[in-house]
Design brief:
heterotrimer, A mainly alpha (about 280), B alpha+beta (about 450), C mainly alpha (about 290), A: about 280 residues, mainly alpha, MetI-like fold, 14 helices, about 70% helix, disordered N terminus, C: about 290 residues, two-stranded antiparallel sheet, 12 helices, about 5% strand, disordered C terminus
């Protein structure tokens, strides 16, 4: 921080306005989350009878009830979700990084065509794809398996785009050329030079994919029949739509929704530190 | 290892998709090798999609007694999405062996050839169900497409304490209900006697049934669609008039808003089905013992008609290779005294079986103030009118929601919404090629 | 970068993506197109075996989708909604990204996670949440403000709010990541020239960000065209949203509620085509800067 005092001087005209603006945004974003936290503390009796912004007394009961629901199926759903989101995001990040790097740093016939094709996938809504994907998976006997949820979520146009943009900016051509002069093969160049430079971008991609898969509802809903393979979203949905003669278990849903946010927050906090890296110089701020 | 398996899977997908390009329907497995259960291959394994609570416990009792037929429960979400999911699975060729089917969805399952005809296997048990209920699984044809599990005869639930407080008497006719609604508004402008929900076609269908509506019927080889009949229009305009007058609320059922109104004592009645106690208990636990039940108000004094809201059957998939075993289980589940006892206790359903209905003893805890709860239910159930659902209830129900929403918003007559339901249903059936009687 | 490629290497590197693309996008899309040219025909009562078969109907489903007045009304509604969401969401995302990137913001980490957090809330849950907050008798907001959030004239804004709430953090992070990739010495140079932070933002950062801004816009255009979760989750709470409020809701209704997979397939292809036209139209307008020398 060589420019510390210059920064201080520049701060004067605007004062705390930027911080204030950001905090306003943060409050807007946090308020409803805070509301779920409150709702999760309410017993079924309190949920619709006490003031919306006062804490309830049923949090522990809700949690115990949720964990005991059908012999702890909540944990199974959580583990499944972790598998889908974690495994899917890892594979997706790998594929995106390799593709993005290739599209950014190589010139070859069909480059733009391939890029546009891959990106074009975003034009087709996932609601549309779920049923054909299901019918096709059924034909090869892979419906209602873990693969059926994992495989279709690996390729993600946005991630490939991000990886390409990131690779363009973060990997200096000179470095690659130097490597080639030293006689490194293309595979080694990617593995040892390109990928390490792309780590911060890959972290972002991983996070996006993880969250996207974590929150995906329709694909697992269609693909899976066996409730032992459900992820949290589909599992909690069975609590919401528990049949015409059964009330929705609002207190369990709200508690489940709140608990399922915690791993995401933890993940996000862990990933934060990767962003500290200053890309241009490779130095740590 | 993992990579290898992944590679193998990918290769399999690729070759199979290429191979199957252009072939229309999934190659159905050769017609149901109906081998008598379990030759040398060990027990028959069946999967069962249901959303009834604690069904796994009930099935465990079966599995213990029948080591040769093992059933696995897969708990699904209920509602319209469940029907869509089953139909998609059937189309793709890998549905479960058994499925819980709501009565209104059964015809669309039959039309998609997704459920099996159990006529031969169920000849001996037909007499265990009331005629109206049995009609819901035969659709008025020769076939039998499911075994009735639970039913939802409609009754009037009301806040006894608040009726006393405001000096209202329990309405015997819909005319009296309307008068009571007006009287209540004068006494307490914050409270409503009831609400009309534009989101629950099932409730409206039940009320129309009570008035004598027959939306679909089969005559010979063609369907007759008569949704905009006189009884239905009468029911629609009755509620439309009350809403317009401002004496009945228009908030939908089952929303947080509705829960809140129940809790605050701002809604005094709910024309609902026999399963209402469970809903009330969980949504308004504090009002325990304050609700009471009475027969639905009648259109003409002295009558005792009702309709059905909800209820479901157990159907067997047409694609199952173990039809006999599946039917055996479905029969046990819905007619065996021990199973019915478990269904009532664990899954909290109102059984379809006549015998089981009359065997119900103690009133639900929420209605402990009304010891004759089940007797009332049985009486009402006997007066419930028969009804046939058509093959495209999805279209009809969806149009109900859109058309009644619009009528509420634009304050137009409800009978117009009923006409919209009729038109949409007929248009859809025409488009698909169903034979329609004029 | 030299024009002489590196032989087969780039193709090898792209193989996984292309295989996945073929299997999970191209083939299903092809299947959808094929489904869109078909329809079931029933005979008689349509009950029992063999009463129902699939027939080819050519472009009937497409012409039905294109001549459906309700679908075009849906497009109009989505256009209004989309314009609102795009401007507000991307405006906020850009503002927050720039603020985070400027060195003199306190509590940056906290704000960053707070603003991104809504993205971690599943769309259905987010809408349900806001739904609770919109309902007259439950909402703490309603205690203060006397607005009917779910009325005919306000419901679009209420839905846009949910989308903005959920999407700002994501776009902010995309833009922020792009900002972090800009060499810092560019700013130093501008600072030495006496430029203020705002001037640096407007004259250096935003131009450098243009490709990222364009692409987030394109992706957001596509996402808003596909709006589905917000209206369909709010629908049970209000009578102002019909089952065909947005084009994708009509697809869902056809496929899942009324069991007409074929119309759903045709409508979805129309949606994809319109998305294509709109996003390429937008790219044309901004002169293809994003796809240029990537």
């Amino acid at each position: 921080m060589a420019s510390a005092h210059r920064l201080k001087a520049a701060r004067a005209p605007w004062g705390v306005a930027p911080t204030g603006l950001l905090l306003l945004g943060a409050i807007y974003c946090l308020f409803p989350v805070f509301w779920v936290l409150i709702a999760a503390t309410k017993s079924p009796a309190e949920l619709f009878s006490t003031s919306t912004l006062s804490f309830g007394t049923g949090f522990l009961d809700n949690v115990t009830q949720l964990f005991a629901y059908r012999d702890g199926v909540f944990w199974l759903w959580a583990a499944n979700t972790l598998l889908y989101a974690g495994g899917g995001a890892l594979l997706s990040t790998a594929v995106s990084a390799v593709s993005g790097y290739t599209l950014a740093k190589y010139r070859f016939r069909g480059r733009n065509l391939i890029f546009n094709l891959l990106i074009g996938g975003i034009l087709v809504p996932s609601v549309v794809l779920a049923i054909p994907q299901y019918l096709l998976f059924s034909k090869v006997g892979l419906a209602d398996t873990y693969w059926a949820v994992l495989l279709p979520q690996i390729l993600h146009p946005y991630s490939i785009y991000l990886a390409r943009v990131y690779a363009t900016a973060a990997i200096p051509d000179s470095l690659l050329e130097a490597g080639r002069i030293d006689g490194a093969g293309e595979g080694r160049l990617m593995y040892q030079v390109a990928i390490p430079l792309m780590v911060p971008g890959m972290v972002t991609i991983f996070l996006f994919q993880f969250v996207a898969i974590w929150n995906n509802f329709l694909l697992p809903f269609i693909m899976l029949g066996d409730d032992g393979k459900f992820p949290l979203t589909v599992g909690l949905f069975t609590l919401l739509q528990s049949g015409a003669n059964q009330p929705s278990l609002y207190n369990l849903i709200l508690t489940g929704a709140f608990l399922s946010l915690i791993p995401l927050i933890a993940l996000f906090l862990t990933m934060q530190r990767y962003w500290k890296t200053d890309l241009s110089s490779g130095a740590v701020k | 290892m993992r990579a290898n398996r992944l590679g193998a899977a990918l290769a399999a997908v690729l070759t199979a998709t290429l191979a199957s390009c252009g072939s229309s329907e999934p190659a159905a497995s050769p017609e149901a090798a109906q081998s008598p259960a379990a030759a040398a291959t060990g027990p028959v394994k069946l999967t069962y999609w249901t959303w009834a609570p604690n069904m796994d416990k009930i099935v465990a009792a079966w599995n213990q007694e029948h080591p040769d037929i093992q059933v696995t429960v897969s708990k699904q979400a209920g509602g319209d999405d469940a029907a869509a999911k089953f139909l998609t699975a059937a189309k793709a060729g890998n549905p479960p062996d058994l499925v819980q089917a709501e009565y209104q969805h059964l015809p669309s399952f039959v039309a998609a050839d997704a459920v099996a005809d159990l006529k031969a296997e169920t000849a001996s048990i037909a007499g265990e169900f009331a005629e109206g209920l049995w009609g819901l699984v035969t659709l008025g044809t020769e076939g039998v497409y499911g075994i009735p599990q639970d039913s939802g005869p409609m009754m009037l639930f009301y806040r006894e304490d608040l009726f006393d407080k405001y000096g209202l008497s329990v309405p015997k006719t819909w005319q009296e209900y309307a008068d009571a609604a007006r009287a209540l508004r004068k006494k307490d402008p914050k409270a409503y006697l009831g609400t009309f929900s534009s989101k629950d076609p099932g409730a409206f269908t039940g009320l129309a049934q009570q008035a004598g509506a027959q939306w679909w019927s089969i005559s010979g080889e063609s369907w007759k669609v008569n949704i905009a009949d006189e009884p239905t229009k009468k029911v629609a305009d009755y509620w439309g008039g009350l809403v317009k007058e401002g004496v009945i609320d228009d908030m939908p059922y089952f929303t947080p808003e509705w829960n809140k109104a129940l809790n605050d004592g701002r809604l005094l009645t709910w024309p609902s089905a026999v399963w209402a106690p469970g809903v009330l208990e969980s949504n308004a636990p504090k009002a325990k013992g304050k609700w009471a039940v009475a027969p639905l108000p009648q259109w003409n004094a002295g009558e005792s008609f009702s309709g059905f809201w909800g209820g479901s059957s157990t159907a067997v998939s047409s694609k199952t290779p173990n039809k006999a075993a599946a039917t055996q289980f479905a029969t046990w589940l819905n007619t065996d005294p021990a199973a019915l006892d478990l269904l009532v206790k664990e899954a909290a359903i109102y059984p379809a079986s006549t015998k089981a209905q009359s065997a119900l003893g103690q009133a639900p805890g929420y209605f402990s103030n009304q010891p004759d709860f089940w007797q009332q239910a049985a009486t009402v159930s006997a007066g419930a009118r028969g009804f046939t659902f058509g093959p495209n209830v999805g279209v009809t129900y969806n149009t109900f929601k859109d058309a009644f929403d619009k009528a509420l918003q634009n304050k137009t007559a409800f009978s117009g919404a009923v006409q919209a339901m009729q038109d949409a249903t007929v248009a859809d059936m025409r488009k698909s090629g169903f034979q329609l009687a004029s | 970068m030299r024009r002489s490629g590196r032989g087969a290497w780039p193709y090898l590197f792209l193989t996984p993506a292309m295989v996945l693309f073929t299997l999970f996008l191209a083939v299903p899309i092809g299947y959808t197109v094929w489904l869109a040219t078909r329809r079931t025909k029933v005979s008689g009562l349509g009950l029992g075996r063999g009463a129902r078969r699939e027939v080819s109907v050519g472009f009937d489903n497409f012409s039905a989708a294109l001549s459906d007045a309700e679908l075009w009304h849906g497009w109009l509604r989505v256009l209004g909604y989309g314009a609102l969401v795009l401007v507000v969401m991307l405006g906020l995302a850009l503002l927050f990204a720039l603020l985070l990137d400027s060195a003199r913001v306190r509590l940056a980490r906290f704000s960053r996670i707070a603003i991104f957090l809504p993205y971690a809330v599943p769309g259905v849950a987010a809408t349900l949440l806001w739904g609770f907050l919109y309902l007259p008798s439950l909402s703490p907001i309603r205690d203060v403000l006397e607005i009917d959030f779910l009325g005919a004239s306000t419901v679009t804004y209420s839905m846009a709010n949910v989308a903005v709430w959920g999407g700002t953090g994501f776009n902010m992070l995309v833009l922020y990541t792009a900002l972090r990739a800009i060499p810092r010495d560019l700013y130093e140079a501008a600072r030495l020239d006496g430029a203020s932070e705002i001037q640096i933002a407007v004259r250096v950062k935003i131009p450098m960000l243009t490709p990222a801004i364009i692409l987030t816009t394109v992706f957001s255009i596509i996402a808003t065209i596909q709006v589905f979760t917000e209206p369909s989750t709010l629908r049970p709470l209000t009578n102002t949203i019909s089952s065909t409020w947005s084009p994708l809701m009509k697809v869902y209704r056809d496929a899942f509620v009324t069991g007409d997979l074929y119309s759903a397939a045709a409508t979805s292809i129309v949606i994809a085509a319109i998305s294509l036209v709109l996003s390429f139209g937008f790219l044309r307008v901004v002169r293809n800067r994003a796809f240029g020398e990537g």
